[in-house]
Amino acid sequence: MQEGKIIQSVAKAMRLLDLLAASERPMTLAEISTQTGWPKSTVHGLLSTMREFSTVAQDSDGRYMLGIRLFEYGCTLSNSWTIIEIAKPFIQHISYETGEAVFLSILDRGEVITLDRADNRTGLNTAAEVGCRLPIHCTSQGKLFLAYMPEQERKAVLSRTVLAPYTPLTITTPEQLQRELVEIRAQGYAIENGEYKTGLRSVSAPIFDQNGAVPYAIGIIGMFRQIESEQFTRATQIVVETAKKISKFL
Q1: Measured by CB atoms within 10 angstroms of the end CB, which terminus of the chain is less buried, N or C?
Q2: Quick one: average pLDDT of 107-122?
Q3: Letter string b/e over residues 147-168, b meaning 16 or more CB atoms within 10 A of that residue's CB
Q4: What's the CA gap between 213 and 178, in Å, rounded?
Q5: Which positions fall inside the IclR-ED domain (predicted)?
Q6: Are 113 and 128 in contact (CB under 8 A)?
Q7: Are 206 and 186 in contact (CB under 8 A)?
């Protein structure tokens, strides 16, 4: 959206929702005012309006939190996304076959969001929680989206992305990242080799829509010893084959 078309009051309301969503506890008016840098009167007016629509709620101490209406919106949106229904049996089957965690992801505003997942047999929490946002430059699904998006869109996303070093193996230079993106398109899948979290490795494959775009990615993540292992190679083959099957449904 162009800068001149942004309605500032709406933008501020969205900023408040982001702030409350990121907080691990309800927030006071003073805390919200301090973190946003806005006057208390402005914050109070926005929150009072949002409370009327149940997108914001208050606890018994007057602190603010996300409201029940957002949960209702989320349920409605989830029910309308047929990709989750289509992919779920595939995700569960892959997890059963490999014993590893499996995830379904989309890209939003330069970050990866987990739409659905299946846990591994050990119960270890290796896959990101549903709804969680992940960096684009150091996850297999993020690099996959970058590799398959149009060049102009990729340049725009990367211009806003800080190649932060999450581990010693994280790609932190545009040149190195560009070389890997070329390789990803050539081989048809993306690998994350301990770049986001030490000890974790993942592989993601593209799910194509009817227009040939890649709106979704499916992948496996686990504590594989190395990406050259037989287990990881098998996981890669399964993910690529499954992504093709889901693409046919779309």
Answers
A1: N
A2: 88
A3: bbbeeeebeebbeebebeebee
A4: 19
A5: 69-250
A6: no
A7: no
